[in-house]
Design goal:
Layout (H helix, E strand, L loop, with lengths): L2 H25 L5 H33 L13 H12 L7 H23 L3 H30 L9
Helix pairs in contact: 1-2, 1-3, 2-4, 2-5, 3-4, 4-5
């Protein structure tokens, strides 16, 4: 992976994390800047890792579907494929358009399906299915972890004795 792609994936991860964390911070006004920075950094790295894993997971699923995998370079991120993903991450802010954010992810997934089909020998529709299953699976896993972290880190309010 080129350094430009790594920087774009990290920027996309930070942007996606900011879009998810800032509404949570608005509900907790007493959060310190240090803990906010830590949350943003950890969330950005996690989201960047998920973005990085998306084509790898799709390729693994494609190889499971299509057993005789032809030798090839494999599916990798290129700056042209990552740029719309970064734009989608920037638009992750809840008030800037969740539907447009979803449409951009669908567009990025469709762009990934072509190189995946060429790398694995699958048809375009089968490759698109693998990209979709990989994206949804990773999204569900991240959302589950995110909700678990929020539940664990939620401040405990003492019960009133009334």
């Amino acid at each position: 992976m080129s350094p430009v792609v790594v920087v774009l994936l990290l920027f996309g991860g930070l942007s996606e994390a900011a879009g998810r964390i800032l509404p949570m911070v608005a509900c907790r006004p007493g959060m310190s800047r240090t803990s906010l920075s830590g949350l943003l950094l950890a969330g950005g790295l996690a989201e960047g890792a998920v973005f990085t894993l998306w084509p790898l997971t799709a390729e693994t699923l494609a190889q499971l579907v299509h057993s005789p995998a032809p030798p090839g370079g494999g599916l990798v991120w290129t700056p042209g494929l990552v740029a719309p993903l970064v734009l989608a991450a920037v638009l992750a802010f809840p008030l800037l358009g969740p539907l447009f954010h979803l449409l951009l992810f669908v567009g990025v997934g469709a762009d990934l399906a072509g190189p995946l089909a060429a790398a694995t020998g699958l048809g375009w529709w089968s490759a698109a299915g693998c990209v979709t299953v990989a994206g949804v699976g990773l999204g569900v896993a991240v959302e589950t972890v995110r909700r678990l972290v929020v539940r664990i880190s939620a401040p405990k309010t003492p019960e009133s004795i009334a």
